[in-house]
Amino acid sequence: MEEDYDPFRYASSHSKPASQATNFQSPSEEVEEDDLYDATPVNTRAVPALRPAEGGVLGAQPSAAGSPPSLAAPQQSMDVNRTKSQSRRSTEQSRPSGEQGFIAADIDVGQSSYSYWWAQENIPPPTLQNRQDILYEIESSTSAKRGGKATVSKDVYVLYMDYSQSTITAVFDAGDAHNVTFEQRHERPPPAPRQDQLESASLQFGARIAEAAHSRQNNSVGDGSPHALVLDLIMPLTAVGALAPIGTRAYGALVYANLANASTQQFDEIRSGDIVTFRNAKFAGHKGTMHAKYATDAGRPGQDHVGVVLDWDGTKKKIRVWEQGRDEAKGGKKGKVHEESYKVGDLRSGEVRVYRVMGRSWVGWDK
């Protein structure tokens, strides 16, 4: 034992304090210390090591032999996750709760009035009377009960310009109209028609509208206004299932919409017999072989213009229509049906919309 004793070797292995003897370095940390002297440093910013006691997250594990661990990756990952979480919360909070997004809603049914409209034939609630922007129909039925009493149920079906609808039901005693109860139900607009439904409606109604419009050329229809022509063409088809227009701005399913060429939507090819509407529309461009400048307008404020599509040139974005009453309205003359063309590519302001006349089944009114 004495021969094996080496005082210098003993001092070198046992003379360190206990606090330093427990400070071990990982292989990767040794490599980093050598790199500080053997290679030019790339990033001199000191990055503190992550300890489980501070963040609750284990430090980065050593990478493959000889390569230092990436210390920036965990910080980047936490920043990305935090950003995504904040963005998602912001989106959810921005959604308004309870917003319907369509016109149909509860109305004042006029129960406090003494007109008793529900007891009168084909009379809607007072707030719906004389409105030009809705379409309504009324149905009534009477059921007899014991003791000779009779109960009347009156349903008012209301269709708005966005094709949302309300059903207002009044149930009252036939012998005492004052004793009445009301119920209101609302439905959102129907889904946009499929391609085959749009084509079928064009064949069923559009072709007949175009043919009838052609037969009225050079004649004055109704009072000579643009809307008189369209109503004269559509209303006869309601007997065979066509849906009547709603006011002067809704003629069926939307096929094409152009807002000053800044926003354009098209859901089907524009076809003969479709209904085209102009609202504050101003056109300006060049036409003819000499490319002469032109400017025209259709649908002045408060006087929306409307016509029937004759044909559509998608390449030139040019639409030909049957119309009446646009030019004549300037001089107070009674209009006649004539052909006119509009190049929607030259639309500078206002809007142009094209509708497809649909059947009553589209809004569930065929039952």
SSE inventory with pairings:
Layout: H1 7-14, H2 18-21, H3 27-38, H4 52-55, H5 72-94, E1 135-144, E2 150-159, E3 165-173, E4 176-187, H6 195-215, H7 226-234, E5 253-259, E6 263-266, E7 275-287, E8 292-298, E9 305-313, E10 318-323, H8 328-331, E11 338-343, E12 347-356
Antiparallel strand pairs: 1-2, 2-3, 3-4, 5-6, 5-12, 7-8, 7-9, 7-12, 9-10, 10-11
Structure write-up:
With 367 residues, the chain is α+β, with helices and mostly antiparallel strands. Among the domains are: 117-187, no CATH class; 195-363, endopeptidase fold (from Nostoc punctiforme). It contains 8 helices and 12 strands. The strands form 2 sheets. Strands 5, 6, 7, 8, 9, 10, 11 and 12 form an 8-stranded antiparallel β-sheet that branches. A hairpin with a 5-residue loop joins β1 (135-144) and β2. Mean pLDDT is 80; it is low at 10-74 and 76-98.
Task: Give keywords.
single chain; 367 residues; alpha+beta; endopeptidase fold (from Nostoc punctiforme); 4-stranded antiparallel β-sheet; 23% helix
| CATH level 1 class label of the domain at 195-363 | Alpha Beta
Strand content: 25-35%
The CATH topology name of the domain at 195-363 reads endopeptidase fold (from Nostoc punctiforme)
Low-confidence segments: 10-74, 76-98
Quote the distance from N terminus to C terminus.
Answer: 112 Å
Q: Number of helical runs?
A: 8
Brief synopsis:
Among the domains are: 117-187, no CATH class; 195-363, endopeptidase fold (from Nostoc punctiforme). Helices cover 23% and strands 28% of the residues. It has helices at 7-14, 18-21, 27-38, 52-55, 72-94, 195-215, 226-234, 328-331; strands at 135-144, 150-159, 165-173, 176-187, 253-259, 263-266, 275-287, 292-298, 305-313, 318-323, 338-343, 347-356.
